[in-house]
Amino acid sequence: MRRSIRMSLNILGSMALDSVETPYGREVDSLGGSASFSALAASLFCDVRMIGIVGTDFPKENMKIFEERGVDTSAVEVKDGATFRWRARYKHELGHAHTIGTEFGVFEGYLPDRNSIRNGESLLLANLDPDIQNWLLEGEAQPGFVACDTMGLWIKEKKSSVLKLLRRADLLLINDAEARLISGERDLIGAARYLRSKGVNMVVIKKGEHGALFFTDRIHSMIPAFLLENIKDPTGAGDTFAGGMIGYLERAKGNINDMLLRRALVYGSIMASFAVEQFSVKGLLQADAKAVKGRYKRFLELTGF
Amino acid sequence: MRRSIRMSLNILGSMALDSVETPYGREVDSLGGSASFSALAASLFCDVRMIGIVGTDFPKENMKIFEERGVDTSAVEVKDGATFRWRARYKHELGHAHTIGTEFGVFEGYLPDRNSIRNGESLLLANLDPDIQNWLLEGEAQPGFVACDTMGLWIKEKKSSVLKLLRRADLLLINDAEARLISGERDLIGAARYLRSKGVNMVVIKKGEHGALFFTDRIHSMIPAFLLENIKDPTGAGDTFAGGMIGYLERAKGNINDMLLRRALVYGSIMASFAVEQFSVKGLLQADAKAVKGRYKRFLELTGF
Questions:
Q1: Pairs of CB atoms within 8 A across A/B
Q2: Taking CA atoms, which of A129, B82, B154, B172 is between 20 and 30 Å from B108?
Q3: What is the mean pLDDT of chain B?
Q4: A224 touches chain B (CB under 8 A)
């Protein structure tokens, strides 16, 4: 019953079966999706409720993975049909995924249950069709803090929906290529200025293995990515970053200041570092509070001067 | 007479006339060359003696620029013939220069005067033919601390000479693409391990706008690049980084510890940030001690968490 009175971080996003090939291996129908990575990362910091949809072919073991991390999956619909599937290949340069196929499956026509969220609760709109993201925002319940992520596909195909989202969101996470695409600016400070002019106060620009930038009305911050030797599969790194960052902020709720915002960026980066070391969510599942603390300490050493 | 008894940082490298085009402008026969950028950057921190060669067509105003920064140019030969010239174009992505032409001019057959350096003095071998770099090292005078830089051209054409250089040098500065090229490793930690196994104890891997990594037997360090909005011409950024870093170390000579080495990386990055804001050495010439101090403070703010 505890969960029914606690405030949770709601995470809307995709739950998927990913088939990914990198120079370091290949997996078929592994657990993936923006909500999956984000929720597992955030679950180390706060209570999480996932909002999404899967098909009847979604393995029960996957659902168990969330439950074992204490993630509330009661707002995940199970619908007759196929789970969202993504197939991709990474070349030796791991920076860029070459999408081979995307099958939306049960996500076609999906509209989340607006009653899933309650007034004042935080909301992370992980990467998903911006019309679905906006739909959840326009319900009766008014979420508190709203963070969102998006991707190039939506910027190209539904730019006005993405811009609409920015008018309502408090924080946007976006990668460097996407920030350049939506703003038309090569320079990332200029891109962040453009995005903030569209209504979102805080902007995180993720640069993959090169770290991240963070902009608010008072903050310009830059952090390197956690230095790793063995990156096997970058899938979900950005989603994990988002979950780690917003989860960390949720834990500190009501006590957020500039330094805490900057530190949240570091926790996002650290969580992403676990995700990319293995395929699917495996690396993320090995991260516990102690491992996170260890990497935070190491991050301090790596960046000290 | 003061200069004759003080220890100097000796900088061997190219002195050139650069013709560079970027999306932000175009210059013809501007002051360039690895030694030029390195020396101007280092001169803010320590006494500098340049070692190099120019043709009789090298403008007197250029020589004056060094002298006004207190750089000792007595070891710069002036020879009948043409100064080294480099022509290049940068596309909208400023990361990579497309070389249009290189004319070595008086650098063909150049061997520096080994008597230019004195026992125990520090030496920065800025990017240049590794056979010339090695030649200076093999003289009677034994320099103290030796830092060196190189580039893809020499790795491709004279790899054994570059490797020979690494056996003698204490510190190598190299960019990420070059580190991958020489080591055959995609991963930069692996590349640094390869380079260190070749005899050079300290390795800086420069990642351009993405910062730098630093490896010694005890240190793994990563710093972001100074966040800039207006980059006009990246030419000389790496050379300037080297000059700033080694100049800072030279100033602290005899008192070097791990934290100081890490901080030297930040000063390298800060000096490079001035260089890229304008064409040729113009940005660098605007940097004085106060401006450097200001950017160091700003760097602390940008990277704090």
A1: 72
A2: B172
A3: 95
A4: yes
What is the C-alpha separation between B268 and B246, in angstroms, rounded? 8
* CB–CB contact B223 A224 (8 Å): yes
pLDDT for the residue B3:
42
Give the Cα separation of B156 and A15 in Å (integer).
Answer: 47
pLDDT bracket for residue A162 (50, 70, 90) = very high
pLDDT the model gives residue A94:
78
> Is B303–A213 a contact, with Cβ atoms under 8 angstroms apart?
no
B227·A213 Cβ contact <8 A: yes
Output the six-digit token pair for B259: 């934290």
Q: Report pLDDT for A5.
A: 52
DSSP result, A101-122? EEE-GGGTT----GGGS-TT-E
- In single-letter form, the type of residue at position B37 comes to F
CA angle B255, B261, B266 (to 5 degrees): 130
Query: pTM for the complete prediction?
Result: 0.93
Q: What is the pLDDT of residue B305?
A: 94
Amino acid identity, position A85: R
For position A6, what pLDDT does the model report? 67
Question: Chain-centre distance of CA B169, in angstroms?
Answer: 14
Which of B14, B4, B5, B105 has its CA nearest to residue B51?
B14
User: What is the rounded CA–CA span in Å between residue A289 and residue A246?
Assistant: 16
The average pLDDT across A211-234 equals: 95
pLDDT in tens, A37-56: 999 999 999 999 999 999 99
Using CA atoms, how far apart are residues A144 and A142, in angstroms rounded to an integer?
7
Backbone angles phi, psi at A146, to 5 degrees: -120, 120
A220 and B CB contact within 8 Å: yes
Per-residue tokens: A169: 């969101």
